[in-house]
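Hey, I was hoping to borrow your eyes for a little while. No rush at all, and the record is pasted right below:
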Amino acid sequence: MKKIISKAGYIAYEATENDSRKLGGIGVCDFCGKHSATGYLIPVMNAYYCPECYKSWDENSVMYPEDLHIEKRRIAYYETMLR
């Protein structure tokens, strides 16, 4: 699993369906509802996105500083669960 930074400055993870399962998911995109064997975990949204939906989100997302404490807490949880 690779940690990346979105264009808006949020942290995301390149992930697999199995990574999403460790967090209670089943490899289904939280935006379009399609199964995706690979995708992106987005801590600030607590979501798993397929590559197409992540690309759209990455192009259009806006950084909200008031969300950073939520992102930080979820990153700590993700990294504990995905070791």
User: Anything to note?
Assistant: The CA atoms of residues 21 and 27 lie 7 Å apart. The chain has one domain: 2-81. The mean pLDDT is 96.
